[in-house]
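User: Reviewer 2 asked us to show a designed sequence for the structure in our supplementary figure. I'm pasting the structure tokens here. Could you produce the per-position amino acids so we can include them in the response letter?
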């Protein structure tokens, strides 16, 4: 573990373990590279696993800048890939990390990639009259409702998201959930989270999916995905590259933490013999 220095002088906390084919894993909103800790341990003897904390998150909290966007995160990813001299990368993104990966491909192409893995994420979160495969947690996730939000309002938004994406938390009680979010406030830059949530609501990477020229694998949760099960078929129809999907049974959107062994096995299957 260490820090990767970006061109703007900020640093990203990252982990680089193992040897062999390179897999770069991108975490989700308000999360961290810790989500991949157990799978990385399982894969260490089989591949080189690189994970890092996005700006404004955990070990990279101090790298937050005003008006953060997914495009900025994709620029950071490009700097990391180029700075470490990575080639033939298996790029994996979970949740917001998947959108970061698609933003990267939209801007920089796939020259340095061998495969793409998207984990439980739609290329467009906002539903409209022509798109119903976005987030399925209610109307407030369709409307742009995060501009000029106070901490208290964003707290409520985050709490609602947690309860809908991980309904088992209801049994833990409000005190546990409030404490959990307060901990996130300590570990993440709150303004960065607000800006990135807004960027996620505005983002549309469907065109990038249609232009993919590397194999695509889609991991999705059953029954607890926050997206329609029809999204799997949409990816299959839209991409011209080889495609496969993997269902993680008895899981929620947090499928990596819930099933780290299956996650590691599926990544191992993607490695070159």
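Assistant: Here is a per-position design you can include in the supplement:
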């Amino acid at each position: 573990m260490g820090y990767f220095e970006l061109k703007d002088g900020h640093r990203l906390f990252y982990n680089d373990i193992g040897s062999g084919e390179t897999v770069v894993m991108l975490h989700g909103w308000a999360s961290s590279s810790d989500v991949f800790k157990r799978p990385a341990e399982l894969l260490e003897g089989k591949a080189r696993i690189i994970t890092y904390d996005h700006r404004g998150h955990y070990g990279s909290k101090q790298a937050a800048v005003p008006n953060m966007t997914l495009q900025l995160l994709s620029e950071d990813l490009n700097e990391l890939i180029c700075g470490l001299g990575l080639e033939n990368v298996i790029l994996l993104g979970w949740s917001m990390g998947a959108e970061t990966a698609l933003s990267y491909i939209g801007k920089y192409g796939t020259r340095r990639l061998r495969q793409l893995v998207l984990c439980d994420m739609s290329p467009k979160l906002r539903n409209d009259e022509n798109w119903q495969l976005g987030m399925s947690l209610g109307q407030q996730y369709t409307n742009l409702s995060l501009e000029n939000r106070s901490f208290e309002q964003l707290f409520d938004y985050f709490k609602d998201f947690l309860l809908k994406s991980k309904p088992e938390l209801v049994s833990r009680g409000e005190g546990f959930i409030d404490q959990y979010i307060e901990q996130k406030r300590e570990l993440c830059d709150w303004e960065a989270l607000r800006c990135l949530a807004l960027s996620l609501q505005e983002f549309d990477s469907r065109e990038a999916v249609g232009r993919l020229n590397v194999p695509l694998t889609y991991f999705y949760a059953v029954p607890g995905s926050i997206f329609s099960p029809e999204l799997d078929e949409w990816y299959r129809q839209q991409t011209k590259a080889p495609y496969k999907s993997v269902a993680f049974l008895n899981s929620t959107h947090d499928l990596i933490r819930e099933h780290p062994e299956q996650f590691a096995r599926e990544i191992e299957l993607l490695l070159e013999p």
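For the response letter, you might also mention the following. The mean pLDDT is 92. The chain has one domain: 2-268.
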